[in-house]
Amino acid sequence: MANILIVDDDPAVQLTIRLLLERAGHHVTVAGDGRKGLAQFEANSFDLLFLDIFMPGMDGLETMRHVRALQPGIPIVVISGRSITPDAYAEPDFLKMATKLGAVASLQKPFRADALLAAVDGCLKAVESEGSDVNASRR
């Protein structure tokens, strides 16, 4: 199965995602903030990244910029406890920002287990099909 990095500052969210993914057969690494997540990302090879947008210190958007510079093709699922839908009078549209930086899916906390697992499956299948397309074109 996949090697997945979770970067979130909420221990309850870390535990929930980790348990769901491990039960689905994936190997999971957890980091509590963007700097630690980036260090884990640089030291290991991952197939998928779950990234909280709102964290103290290095936030998810900044972390995503660094990750994209290192590995442009890795699928990233952004997660957030705040509303990620646009509100023209309140906050910037963080989902739009994350999408521009390459996020392929988003989940709002609290999320359902089936939504999380569907996001993982969709991301991994997309990567597999891209890999098949690349391998087929090399023949």
UniProtKB/TrEMBL annotation:
PROSITE patterns: RESPONSE_REGULATORY. The keyword Phosphoprotein applies. SMART domains: REC. Pfam families: Response_reg. CDD domains: REC. This is Response regulator. One of its GO terms (biological process) is phosphorelay signal transduction system. The modification 4-aspartylphosphate is found at residue 52. Coiled coil: none annotated. It comes from the Bacteria. Residues 3-124 form the Response regulatory domain. InterPro entries: Bact_response_regulator (IPR050595), CheY-like_superfamily (IPR011006), Sig_transdc_resp-reg_receiver (IPR001789). Keywords: Phosphoprotein. PANTHER family: CHEY SUBFAMILY, STRESS RESPONSE REGULATOR PROTEIN 1.
